[in-house]
C-alpha cells in the first residue's frame, strides 16, 4: 500500500524492522521494497532481500542512479524454518546499517540521495515481493513468514533495536510510522 506517513523513507532517516522465517533457501526473496529496479523505468528502490544463500542484502538507489547505489550485506546467513530479526537503518546522507538479531552486520556511507518517484505504482510499499505489476513484473516472492514489520522515521540505535526487537511496541511509540503485525493468518492484504 501507500500510506503517506511512509514517504519519509524517500527523503530522510528511517529504520525498517521485520521478523523473517524463510521456508527454504535457494532463491532471492524480498522482505520489503519500495520502488523498482528496472533500468527501463524509474530504476529507484529501497529494499531488503534474502539472497539465495540466506544472507541479507539491503539497498537504497536514489535519484543519482545505479552508480550511487548504497548496499549493505550480512555475513550471517538465515536458516530455513527459523525466525530471525532484520533491521535496515538509514541515517540520511551519513550511513546505511544492517542488523541481524540486534547485531550490526554491515555499514556503509549513504550517498544515494533522495529517492523520488514520478509514478504512483512504483512508490507502492510491498512486503514479501518486489517489482511493479505493470512495469517490472512482481518477483522475488518471500517463501515463508514475515511478522511484526515496523517502519520508523528515526535512526534506531543498536541498543533500541536489540532491546526492543522481541517486545511489543505501542501503536503511538515515538517515531513509529507504520506497523504491520501480519498476524492475519494468510492472504494478500494486511492492516
pLDDT averaged over residues: 85
Element-by-element helix/strand order: HEEEEEEEEHEEHE
Strand content: 35-45%
Model regions low in confidence, pLDDT < 50 over at least 5 residues: none
Determine Rg (CA atoms, Å): 15 Å
So how many helices? 3
- Termini distance? 10 Å
What is the helix fraction of residues, given as a range?
Answer: under 10%
Largest sheet: 6 strands, antiparallel
Side-by-side strand order of the widest sheet: 8-7-6-1-10-11
Task: Characterize the overall form.
Answer: globular
Q: Please identify the structural class as seen in this structure.
A: mainly beta
The strand count comes to 11
Task: Report on this structure.
The protein is mostly beta strands. The chain contains 3 helices and 11 strands; from the N terminus they run H-E-E-E-E-E-E-E-E-H-E-E-H-E. It has helices spanning 8-11, 120-123, 158-164, and strands spanning 14-22, 29-35, 45-50, 56-61, 70-73, 84-91, 95-100, 103-109, 125-127, 144-152, 176-180. The strands form 2 sheets. It has a 6-stranded antiparallel sheet with strand order 8-7-6-1-10-11. Strands 5-4-3-2-9 form a 5-stranded antiparallel sheet. A hairpin with an 8-residue loop joins strand 4 (56-61) and strand 5 (70-73). The longest helix has 7 residues, at 158-164. The protein is globular, with a radius of gyration of 15 Å. The mean pLDDT is 85.
Amino acid at each position: 500500500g501507500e500510506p503517506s506517513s511512509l514517504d519519509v523513507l524517500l527523503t530522510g532517516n528511517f529504520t525498517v524492522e521485520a521478523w523473517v522465517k524463510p521456508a527454504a533457501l535457494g532463491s532471492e526473496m524480498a522482505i520489503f521494497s519500495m520502488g523498482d529496479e528496472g533500468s527501463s523505468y524509474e530504476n529507484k528502490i529501497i529494499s531488503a532481500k534474502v539472497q539465495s544463500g540466506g544472507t541479507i542484502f539491503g539497498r537504497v538507489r536514489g535519484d543519482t542512479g545505479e552508480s550511487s547505489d548504497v548496499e549493505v550485506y550480512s555475513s550471517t546467513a538465515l536458516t530455513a524454518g527459523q525466525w530471525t530479526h532484520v533491521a535496515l537503518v538509514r541515517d540520511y546522507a551519513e550511513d546505511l546499517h544492517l542488523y541481524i538479531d540486534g547485531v550490526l552486520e554491515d555499514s556503509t556511507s549513504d550517498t544515494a540521495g533522495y529517492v523520488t518517484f514520478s509514478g504512483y505504482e512504483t512508490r507502492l510499499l510491498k512486503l514479501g515481493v518486489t517489482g511493479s505489476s505493470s512495469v517490472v513484473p512482481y518477483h522475488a516472492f518471500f517463501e515463508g513468514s514475515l511478522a511484526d514489520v515496523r517502519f520508523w522515521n528515526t535512526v534506531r540505535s543498536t541498543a533500541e533495536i536489540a532491546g526492543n526487537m522481541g517486545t511489543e511496541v505501542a501503536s503511538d511509540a515515538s517515531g513509529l510510522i507504520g506497523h504491520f503485525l501480519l498476524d492475519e493468518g494468510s492472504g494478500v492484504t494486511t492492516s
